[in-house]
Each structure stands twice: as C-alpha cells, then as structure tokens.
Amino acid sequence: MRILWPDARFNDGTEIERRMAGQDAEFDIHNESDPDAIPESSWSAADVVMVYNTMKIDRRVSERLKRARILIRIGVGYDKIDLKAFGELGIPVCNTPDYGTTEVADTAIAMLLSLSRGIVTYDEMLRQDPHANWTFRTAPAVRRLRHRNFGVVGLGRIGTAAARRARAV
C-alpha cells in the first residue's frame, strides 16, 4: 500500500503512522502547498492520500489519482477538498473530527489562567529584575476566579472539552 502525504508539516516524523499502517505500507511524503509541485507519479501511485489543509484538493487533483481508495483529511472538516469530485469517482473522503481537540481546549484554559492571573506580566517583570520586580503592585488587573463565570461560544468538541476543564466541582 502506498500512502501519499503531499502537504506534510514535518520532514518525517511518522513513527505512529508507519506502525499503524504496517510493514507493507510505503510512505511518499512531501512538504508542499501546491499540488503541481508533487510529481505525477506520486499522485497516480497513491492508494491512500492524507492531507492537512494547506493544499487545495480539487477535481484536477482527484483525476490524477489512478489507484486511490480513500482520501483522509488530517483535521476537522473538509477544508479545500472538492467532495463532489471525489464522490463522482467513488473515492471516500473522511476527516479526523477529534484532531487537536485536547490541545486546543488545554491551551484555551492555559491562556485564561495566564491572562486572568497576570502570569505573563509577572514572568516578564521577574526576568528583567527579579529583586526589584517581586511585587504584586506592578501586576496587571489580577482577578480571582472564584465566583466568576466562564463563557463558551459553541459547544462542539473543543468548546465542550474546554467547558469540562473549567467546570467547578
């Protein structure tokens, strides 16, 4: 099985993917955002195509795929993929709906805590002069979080994950 990864975001950190695909899988990895930068031989030999969202995968690309049995969007949604073209060719397209959910929710909570507690400002001040700046008076409007409301706009996967992390027990 030949797996084409046209818009990889790394040089070759595919240990997990290689282990999951098995010994018979051969990876063809490129770091491009333009489909024309990928050799025609890579498109036509691919059994599987895995894409992020940097490359437009349109009808022109779908017609280059001579052996492809599936297109996998590594991420949420179907950004830049012509679903109609792939449907007409009978090539299923799937995505990874949980991609980044944990990381984004964790980062949202970390940023909330950092901003509300003045952590970044304290860090900058202490790096400049740890002795003179060790005082709460120079911090920004540091607020207690107790009795505060935490608002979430949208309770999809990421919003729900963030809300669960912020839940008072």
Explained architecture:
Helix content is 36%, strand content 11%. By secondary structure, the chain is an alpha/beta fold. Helix 5 (101-117) packs across helix 7 (157-166).
Short description:
The chain is an alpha/beta fold and 169 residues long. It is built from 7 helices and 5 strands.
Number of strands: 5
The share of residues in extended strands comes to: 5-15%
Order of helices and strands: EHEHEHEHEHHH
Largest sheet: 5 strands, parallel
Distance between the termini: 49 Å
Percent helix, as a range, is 25-40%
Number of helices: 7
Radius of gyration based on Cα positions: 23 Å
* Shape annotation: elongated
Give, in spatial order, the strands making up the sheet with the most strands: 2-1-3-4-5
* Structural class designation: alpha/beta
Q: Uncertain spans, ≥5 residues at pLDDT below 50?
A: none
Mean pLDDT, to the nearest integer, reads: 91
Task: Spell out the key features of this protein.
single chain, 169 residues, alpha/beta, five-stranded parallel β-sheet, 5 strands, 36% helix, 11% strand
Write the layout of secondary structure elements.
Layout: E1 2-5, H1 15-21, E2 26-29, H2 40-45, E3 48-51, H3 59-62, E4 70-73, H4 83-89, E5 93-95, H5 101-117, H6 119-128, H7 157-166
Helix pairs in contact: 5-7
